[in-house]
Amino acid sequence: MKATLAAAVAGSGMDEQALLRAATQEAYRRVTLLLNASYADFSPEQQRRIRAALGSETPAGAVSPARRGKPGSTAKQDLPPRYWLPYSGETWSGRGRPPKAFLAWEGTVAHTEWKKRHPDQRFPAYPG
């Protein structure tokens, strides 16, 4: 590593700190580009880990339902997901009515196949 750094410093004409700063900026640009382009392609578990590593519980630009509340009302605390649909990544806390996506999934072939292997469950459990 040190030999590679020394060779890069000698070849670039920059000092070591400036070279490291430039490399860090390039790495940040690449990571940001990758996350912006393909965040939705990551599995829900991978998305959760990315958010945890960044110190953020919601993806960039997303507003949680608790923060979006109606004026004058108290925002409910977000509940952790209890169920999820693997094909779409849709999650549900198990409180209130099931989301339309879950109700629509119940009539599909994928649900029938899943139900054969999990007769005692209504929906797949969230993997987190």
Keywords:
single chain; 128 residues; 2 strands; 3% strand
Describe this structure in words.
The chain is mainly α. The protein has a domain at 79-128. The protein has helices at residues 2-12, 16-38, 44-54, 100-105, 109-117, and strands spanning 83-84, 91-92. Strands 1-2 form a two-stranded antiparallel sheet. A hairpin with a 6-residue loop joins β1 (83-84) and β2 (91-92). The longest helix is centred in the first third of the chain and has 23 residues, at 16-38. The radius of gyration is 22 Å and the shape is elongated. Residues 63-70 have low confidence and may be disordered.
Describe the structure concisely for a colleague.
With 128 residues, the protein is mainly alpha-helical.
How is this fold's topology laid out?
Blueprint: H1 2-12, H2 16-38, H3 44-54, E1 83-84, E2 91-92, H4 100-105, H5 109-117
Antiparallel strand pairs: 1-2
Helix content: 40-55%
Number of strands: 2
Strand content: under 5%
- Stretches with pLDDT under 50, minimum 5 residues: 63-70
Q: Count the DSSP helices.
A: 5
How would the global form be characterised?
elongated
**N- to C-terminal distance:** 37 Å
Give the overall pLDDT as a whole number: 78
Biggest sheet: strands side by side, in what order?
1-2
Structural class: mainly alpha
Order of helices and strands: HHHEEHH
Largest sheet, strands/sense/barrel: 2 strands, antiparallel
Integer-rounded radius of gyration: 22 Å
